[in-house]
Specification:
CATH superfamily of chain A: Putative cyclase
Structural class of chain A: alpha/beta
Strand order of the largest sheet of chain A: 5-11-10-8-6-12-13
Order of helices and strands of chain A: EEEEEEHEHEHEHEHEEE
Helix content of chain A: 10-25%
Low-confidence stretches of chain A: 1-20
Strand content of chain A: 25-35%
Mean pLDDT of chain A: 92
Shape of chain A: globular
Oligomer: homodimer
Largest interface: A-B, 91 and 92 residues
Number of domains of chain A: 1
Number of strands of chain A: 13
Radius of gyration of chain A: 18 Å
Largest sheet of chain A: 7 strands, mixed, barrel
CATH architecture of chain A: 3-Layer(bba) Sandwich
Number of helices of chain A: 5
C-alpha cells in the first residue's frame, strides 16, 4: 500500500540507521524436501482489487495471433510497484532504506510460518495477528525459524473476485476494515525471532482501519520486507513450507509485483 | 524478443494443437539440497539493453523520503512483456498457445543444465547451441533430466553495461550478431529429453542473425517456455542447480519480466 511521503531524496543501498541487522543467511548445506509447488500470487489485471485507486493497465502492442499461427504477440503493462501480490522493500516506507535491488537472494528463499486467523477474521474484520498468536503457534508447531516469513492467513483472498469494496472492507461510513498485523507482533518477530519478513492475504500489513501504519514502520525500520495480497495460504502447512519470492527487479524500486511460490 | 504477428484473436488456456505434451510434474517426494542462492536476473531500468526499441520507463509517483523519515515512496513502471530477464510463454509466438497464467507452478521450479559455449562465442558471435553440444554435455555430466531448463552460457551478459549495440552485436552493415539456440537442438531437447524450457544469456533464444526465429517456433509449438537475458550463468554448475522462475503474473500475458533464482 502507499500514501504520500514527505521526503526529498532516495538514498538506496543503505539501511535505515535505526534498523536491526537483517537475519544472516544460514550457512552450510540446506535441504529442502517437497512434494508440492503452489502459486501464492494473484494474476495482475486491470480489474483487480488494489489499495491505491490506480489500476494496472495493459494493451496489446502486437496483434494477437490466429490459432496455430506463428508470429509474435505481446502486451505493454503500466502499474504501481505496490500492485497485486507484491513485496514492500524497507525503502518503501523508510527514507534511505533498502530498495528491491538491495535485497539479497538469500532473503527471497525462506521458511514459511502460517498463522491462521480465519475464524476470528470471519467475525471481526479488524482483527490483528498478536504476540499471543505467535506464542500459541509456537506452542503448537514449534519455534519460528530464523529467517522465516511469518504469514497471516485471514481467508481474505476469497473476496478477490468480489471487487474493491469487499476486499477493502468498506463500511457504511466509508472506513476500511480488513485484518493485518499488530505492530507489537512485528516488533516481537523482528527482535526475538530474526524473521526475514511478514506477509498478509489482505491489501496491507497494517489492518484496513489503520491510519498511521505502525506495522509498516516497525518492519521498515527493522530493514525487513513485507508481502501483501498473497493468496492460497490456507493450503500451506502451519510450518515446514519454503517460500520463494520472485519480486520484479526494478531499479530503485520500493517494491514490486511478485510471483511467490511455496514448496512443501 | 518480439516482431509483429499476423493473427486475429488470442485463445488462451489451450495448447497449440501441434504441441507435444509438456513434461509431467515429477510425483512423490523431491529433495533439493543447496548452499547457495543466486540471482540470475538483470535489474530492469530505462537504460537497459533490449531487443525491442522501446525501453522500460519509471516515474516516482510519491516523493522520495528524507533519510530516516517514515512515509511512502513508490514508482510507476511501464514496459513490454519481453523486457529484461524474462519468460516467453508458448502463446508469445503460437496463436492459441498457453499464456503466463496457464503455466503450472511445477514448470517454474526445475533442474538447470548449463551448456557453456563461452569459448566459441568469444570467437564467433553467431555460434549456436547444437545437438552435438547437448550430447557432449551429457557424456561429461550425465543425462539432461526430464523437466529441465537447458541454459546457454555464452558470456554475453558481460556486455550488459555497454549499451544496445554491444549486446545486440551490431555489425558495420547494421546486422545483429549474438549466440542462441539451433532449432534442431531445441527439437532434440523437447522430443527426446522432455525439457520444461530453454534459456539464454542473450536477447533472444534464436541467434541475433536470425530472421525467421525457428528456435522460437520449435519451443512455442512444443508448448514449452523460453527464458531470455539471463545473467550470471557462469557461476552455476553444469548440472545440479535448481531454477525458480518468478515470472510476472500478468493477465493474458505472452511473457513477463522474471526474477530467476538458482539454488545449488
Amino acid at each position: 500500500m502507499c500514501l504520500h511521503g514527505t521526503g526529498e531524496t532516495v538514498r538506496a543501498r543503505t539501511r535505515g540507521t535505526e534498523a536491526d541487522a537483517p537475519p544472516a543467511a544460514p550457512t552450510g548445506q540446506r535441504t529442502l524436501g517437497y512434494r508440492r509447488v503452489a502459486d501464492l500470487s494473484h494474476v495482475v489485471s486491470p480489474s483487480m482489487p488494489t489499495f491505491d485507486p490506480e489500476k494496472p493497465r495493459r494493451e496489446a502492442v502486437d496483434p494477437p495471433l490466429a490459432d496455430g499461427a506463428f508470429g509474435f504477440f505481446q502486451q505493454r503493462w503500466t502499474f504501481l510497484e505496490h500492485t497485486g501480490t507484491h513485496l514492500d522493500a524497507p525503502g518503501h516506507v523508510i527514507g534511505g532504506g533498502r530498495l528491491v535491488p538491495d535485497i539479497r537472494s538469500e532473503e527471497l528463499v525462506v521458511p514459511a510460518v502460517v498463522i491462521d486467523v480465519r475464524a476470528r477474521a470471519a467475525q471481526d474484520p479488524d482483527t490483528v495477528v498478536t504476540v499471543e498468536d505467535v506464542e500459541r503457534h509456537e506452542r503448537e508447531h514449534g519455534p519460528v525459524p530464523a529467517g522465516a516469513a511469518v504469514l497471516m492467513c485471514s481467508g481474505w483472498d476469497a473476496r478477490w473476485g468480489q471487487g474493491d469494496d469487499q476486499v477493502r472492507g468498506v463500511a457504511a461510513d466509508g472506513s476500511w476494515h480488513f485484518p493485518g498485523f499488530d505492530p507489537q507482533a512485528c516488533e516481537y518477530l523482528v527482535s526475538r525471532r530474526a524473521i526475514s519478513g511478514v506477509g498478509v492475504d489482505t491489501l496491507s500489513t497494517d489492518p484496513g482501519a489503520s491510519s498511521d501504519f505502525p506495522a509498516h514502520e516497525v518492519i521498515g525500520r527493522a530493514d525487513r520486507w513485507g508481502l501483501e495480497a498473497l493468496t492460497g495460504l490456507d493450503r500451506l502447512p502451519p510450518t515446514g513450507a519454503t517460500l520463494m519470492v520472485g519480486v520484479f527487479p526494478g531499479e530503485d524500486a520500493s517494491g514490486g509485483p511478485s510471483r511467490v511460490l511455496a514448496l512443501w
